[in-house]
Amino acid sequence: MNEFALIDRFFRRAVHDPAVRTGIGDDGAVVVPAPGCDLVFSVDMLVEGRHFLADAAPATVGHKTLAVNLSDMAAMGARPRWALLAGALPDFDECWLDGFTRGLFALADRFEVTLIGGDTTRGPRNFCLTIIGEVPAGAALTRAGARAGDDIYVSGTLGDAALALAVLQGRATLGDADFAMVRERLETPEPRVALGERLRGVASAAIDISDGLTGDLQHILDRSGVGAAIDVALIPRSMPLATLIDCAQRDLALACLLAGGDDYELCFMAAPSSRQVLAAIALEAGMPLTRIGHVTATAGIVVRDEQGTPLATLPRSFDHFG
Predict the structure, then answer these.
(1) d(CA 184, CA 164)
(2) What is the DSSP string of 225-287?
(3) Whether residue 197 sits in one domain with residue 73
């Protein structure tokens, strides 16, 4: 099967989005943005062996390829609309491609995202997806708006994806049910798109947690020219991770919680006056939004342990070139 037959068979679909004038099949896609909206662009690359395991189920790889980009849209408060996908495959594997596209398009359909173009080639397996979203003009969330005195929040729970990877690499052990739960967090993360849209006009700054809480939080602090103080005891975690923190594997568990990455939850700041609004948003979204600390005027991150003592060193967040 040649490149164009592969695209036609696995990636071309009927387009039901009236905003797409020209989709797959031309040298470029043509779309019509909604009136009064800014366009938001983001791109992420997933490389086998670096971002997903070689034996990962293809449907989960397809899901994650889109999910990580949807998470970027969530962090910007944007509604995702269109995607472009470039991929390299070592060979033509019909079964693998069936699974990959099933996972990709199931998530795309949920969030009404239309695949409008891309490219394929032979090579080590990797995927690079560009997402395009819309946000009301001037309303995008950024990393640059945090102010001293703001509360710091995270959505959901943190550390499960990193814990699953630690189990797969033989650095931790879990029972079957606990491992199945955290592995799902690693392989099929849930992007917080609806939450991101609700945070427009409420959050002063936001980022998605892809490389670890402390590392991603530092990006906001750098852009905003502020610092942060957070408390380990307040950071939400699942029961399997909480159990490890309280036992002999505390160092590994803390590294998962503070710097593990692949959470794809949102970290955001908001003024204390917004606490009741955020409580209502959490109830509406059906997920916890947990206040874990506050923004300070002094640069840097101070992480306090359960006794209120600052940690001497922080675990290192994920580095794509590390």
Answers:
(1) 8
(2) T-EEEEEGGGS---HHHHHHHTSTTHHHHHHHHHH------EEEEE-GGGHHHHHHHHHHHTS
(3) no
CATH code assigned at 63? 3.30.1330.10
> Is the four-CA dihedral 184, 186, 187, 188 of positive or negative sign?
positive
Assess if residue 315 is contained within a domain.
Answer: no
End-to-end CA distance of the chain: 37
pLDDT in tens, 129-176: 999 999 999 999 999 999 999 999 999 999 999 999 999 999 999 999
Q: What is the CATH number of the domain that holds 180?
A: 3.90.650.10
On whether both 51 and 76 belong to a single domain, the answer is yes
Query: pLDDT > 90: what percent of the chain?
Result: 79
122 and 238 share a domain? no
Distance (Å, whole) CA 67 – CA 89: 20
Residue type, 267: C
What number of CA atoms fall less than 13 Å from residue 306's CA on the CB side? 6
Chain centre to alpha carbon of residue 110: 16
In terms of Cα–Cα distance, which of 116, 127, 61, 59 is closest to 89? 127
Domain range for 204 is: 151-304
Can you say how many angstroms the Cα of residue 189 is from the centroid of all Cα atoms in its chain?
A: 7
Q: Are residues 83 and 110 in the same domain?
A: yes
Question: Looking at per-residue confidence, does 260 or 322 come out higher?
Answer: 260
Residue 199 has pLDDT above 90, yes or no: yes
Specify the number of domains making up the chain.
2
pLDDT at 14 exceeding the cut of 80: no
Segment 253-303, tens digit of pLDDT: 999 999 988 999 999 999 999 999 999 999 999 999 999 999 999 999 999
